[in-house]
User: Fold these one by one.
Assistant:
Number 1:
Amino acid sequence: MSYRIYLVEDDKNLNLVLTSYLEKEGWQVSSFLTGSEAEDAIKDPPDLWILDIMLPDIDGYHLLQEIKKVSPATPIIFISARDADIDRVVGLELGSDDYLAKPFLPRELVIRCRNLLERIYSPGLQIYSVPPYTINEASRTVKTNDETVDLTSKEFDITLYFIKNQGIALSREQILAAVWGTDYFGSDRVVDDLIRRLRKKLPYLNIETIYGYGYRLVKS
């Protein structure tokens, strides 16, 4: 499938190299050298953003927040040459789906993009009903009373994971692997933060805390 990808990277040489690798996969790539150029394109969301944190004009964190206002479910991969642990945690908390610390091999970025795109846009998707919510896996939306609940990509992923595993006790490690991927490196407290936000947005989704272990979605 020919996905649309927006690449925001201010290093011109790296931008050209990454664009070339991504286009070899058959993807349609629009590349930007500044945050302001990318900001103008937010109104026409792609299938995936690849976003550098350190930009010459607009902070990458600010740009991510602006993207999420328009298309909260669109996946984002952060790339950065700064402190890897801090940027990784902050980026994930703000709603990014993956993180790559510079320097990295262009092929690694391609693999991460492919895995993320296939996970989010894979065929054979279903519609689930967990009253009062209707979860559409294909459109990646959650609705209640015909109104769409505004969820980030990660919030939708964890909702879907719970729904597919109703009644099952899930450890934080299992949730991390399913939602963030097995190569995630960081604190499992991102799970707690994400569930705290999810409980506010989906108050009727009965997610139980299993102290010292993880969480369980109670069967309706």
Number 2:
Amino acid sequence: MHTALLILTDGRFPAGGHAHSGGAEAAVQAGRIHDTATLHAFLTGRLHTTGLTAAALAAAAADGTDPLVLDDAADARTPSPAQRAASRRLGRQLLRAARTAWPHPRLDSLAAARPKGAHQPVALGVTARAAGLSPEDAAAAAAHESVSGPATACVRLLGLDPHQVAAVLARLAPDVDAVTAAAAEAARRARTRGPDELPAASAPLLDRYAEQHASWKVRLFAS
């Protein structure tokens, strides 16, 4: 495994992900997540919908597909205004960190073209390419992030046993691997057939939660 992948997926990498719950905070408030079993169900659904979509976008960006085209594709696949805003904030923070860690003209070009931030999966894919990682690596990073961030958030939100939460993530490993493979294959098709080949799996409940969460005056996480 490339060491850059470990750095990129490390929760201590200063890309801002620790401040976001990926919809978990609103799901906890709604009573949908209240223990490790319901956390597992939430993460499974998130992985196979928005996680798959993000992983494919990241893989396509790492494969060299025009990131601005992919950024438009990401926008079309993110119906919630609150989620779009959060994704661009995270993309901007990721690019800032990545340009310091792995200086590259592609990162500079994307930052200049999207000064308010490219969507996070696109920024992730371009970062992976700049760091010498493969499209499969980029897909794996995005798929992993789609479950690890909300899982960590639930330790803070619910006081869940971190050992049991780690076990939930371990049980999800085969699903993460399957989503990674599907995303990388979609990115390969998109190389010749265009971004319509990328998945557009939706999660309407996450969209609803994002809009509700954005209206809260008191919250622990930014999204």
Number 3:
Amino acid sequence: MRRMQTSKPVPTALTIAGSDSGGGAGIQADLHTFSFHRVHGTSALTAITAQNTRGVTRVDVLPAAAVAAQIDAVADDFQVGAVKAGMLVNAEIISVVAWRLKSLAQAPLVVDPVMVSRAGARLIDDSAVGALKEHLLPLAAVVTPNRHEAELLAGMELRTLEDMREAARRIHRLGPRTVLVKGGGMPGDLRGVDVWFDGERMETLYLREVKTHNTHGTGCTLSASIAAWLALGQDVLEATRRAKAHVTASLEHPLPLGRGPGPFSHFSPLGEPG
């Protein structure tokens, strides 16, 4: 049977992140999310984690040269429409990723600054934070810190909506074109309220809160969804709105997996994307 060929461009995105053996976050969540949006997913692994719904038992970090080689291989052969950077682990990998991404200058970069967990556990050291600020954030079309990450980047505590707005202003001065301060870890009525800022326009994004313990991978999924929508041609604000809607609806379909805070369905019935 003759194989059909098409000249129609295939939207493509690249995720640079760690592997989650439980399949709920990291590279696995990113590729699930790209697939849902009908975007071809490519990847560069930074670390391999042994984890499940109850926690992480081991992390093996790949050499920076191996991360760079993966990015080079993708950039050399694919027309990448957007890039998502997640768990970059250390200063050396962050610096190499930033250097290599200059070859993909036309592809908007979404940075999910995996520095502090939603529970407040520090995940990278001070040198890595410094490298992120110096090398990666100035390249970002959008950066998506959670409450604790925003506090670390902005150098202030976040307790109110005005705190979130001020943190967005301070983080924007570090160089990203837009900032999304996520409210998932905020108290009370601010839980799930996000603040978006592009240097001129400040937007407060509200969506319903979903009561569920299955929130593993929400940050990865949100940033991957933003990247997918950017690869599909949406502007950053619209991509962010659609990504928030995707995550919110996905949280309404928790998966009965594992004995801890588990994942949710990345293929929930949300209709046709694109």
